[in-house]
Write a structure and sequence with these properties.
Elements: E1 6-7, H1 13-22, E2 25-28, H2 34-48, E3 63-66, H3 69-72, H4 74-80, H5 83-93, E4 100-110, E5 137-143, E6 155-156, E7 175-176, E8 184-188, E9 193-194, E10 205-214, H6 223-226, H7 229-232, H8 237-243, H9 288-295
Parallel strand pairs: 1-2
Antiparallel strand pairs: 2-8, 3-4, 4-10, 5-8, 5-10, 6-7, 6-9
Bound molecules: 2-oxoglutaric acid and fe (ii) ion.
């Protein structure tokens, strides 16, 4: 029977990266304190009390999903900025781009009687155009409730990121992300996985999904609409930058203020929407030859 490795909350970044390389999935136990779980629950519950059920077999007729978690929840903003997770995302995605961004936020609540979700690779959201050598995603699922085999713990096929695209797992190659509330599952965009079946009569399984992607890819959840400037202006510069109000390269993601006639906010980083004349990580072009040589890679 396949299983996922569990690490302690004080584990090193190298231990995590090594398991992402070998298995493409792992659990860090108890990374969130119990008071934080309570606060998170109280912030999410008004939205999860609605009938936000899925509308097909993939999203699940007995599964609720709510997004816009950066705008809606202070606890989710804290989780999204978790230092360990951000270090891992940076290191893991570093070979494939000049930076990473928050790409998707969702609280997924699998209700009693839900069937198992089809196994899939999340990289499929880009339609299969990405070459396999590019790893686009480092994803997390924070357990808000305990995740058990009975209540729908995520199915994960460790090592399947190295498989041929058509290979399907045998039953004994599927692991279940059983973990206590406050623990977090890390998995990549190329590992086979899917929601689990919930065979309980009254127990819902809730997880907060925060996915990090290469900053040159389109985000699954449109962060500029889910967290528009009038909300983003009251958030920290760090979270704004993480969700995409920043540049991802020398010219990637710039904006021009449509009302500015002074040319001060012409082709600048979106950070300038909130703070006057900010320099960004990509404001200096080292030399034109470097830009050209990069574009020929
Ligand atoms: O709910 C889960 O455990 C997994 C859901 C999932 O993988 C998805 O919707 O893409
Ligand atoms: Fe998925």
């Amino acid at each position: 029977m396949a299983s996922l490795k569990h690490l302690n909350s004080d584990c090193s970044i190298d231990e995590i990266l090594s398991l992402l390389e070998s298995d493409a999935g792992l659990i860090i136990d108890n990374l969130m304190a119990s008071e934080e779980i309570d606060k998170l629950n109280s912030e999410l519950s008004p939205y999860l009390e609605t009938d936000s059920y899925g509308r097909d077999d993939f999203t699940g007729f007995k599964t609720k999903r709510i997004g816009a978690l950066i705008a809606r929840s202070d606890s989710c903003r804290k989780l999204a900025l978790n230092e360990k997770i951000n270090k891992v995302s940076k290191e893991y995605l570093d070979p494939f781009g000049d930076g990473y961004q928050l790409h998707f936020t969702s609280a997924v609540c699998i209700g009693p009687g839900e069937s198992k979700q089809i196994l899939h690779r999340d990289r499929g959201i880009w339609g299969g155009y990405l070459p396999r050598k590019v790893e686009p995603l480092m994803s997390t699922i924070w357990a808000v409730t305990d995740f058990t085999r009975e209540n729908g713990a995520t199915q994960i096929v460790p090592g399947s990121h190295k498989w041929d695209k058509d290979r399907l797992p045998n039953e004994d190659e599927i692991a279940y992300a059983e973990m206590t509330a406050g623990s977090v599952l890390l998995y990549t965009g190329t590992v086979l996985h899917g929601g689990g079946e919930n065979i309980t009569s009254s127990e819902a399984r809730t997880g907060v999904f925060l996915h990090y992607a290469l900053n040159w890819l389109r985000q699954e959840e449109n962060q500029y609409l889910s967290c528009p400037p009038e909300i983003a202006k009251n958030l920290s510069p760090e979270i704004r930058s993480l969700i995409g109000y920043s540049k991802g390269g020398y010219v990637l993601g710039f904006y021009s203020d449509p009302n500015d006639k002074s040319a001060v906010y012409e082709s600048v980083s979106p950070e300038n929407m909130f703070e006057a004349e900010v320099d960004d990580d990509f404001s200096l072009l080292p030399n034109p030859e470097e830009l050209v040589s990069k574009s020929n890679k």
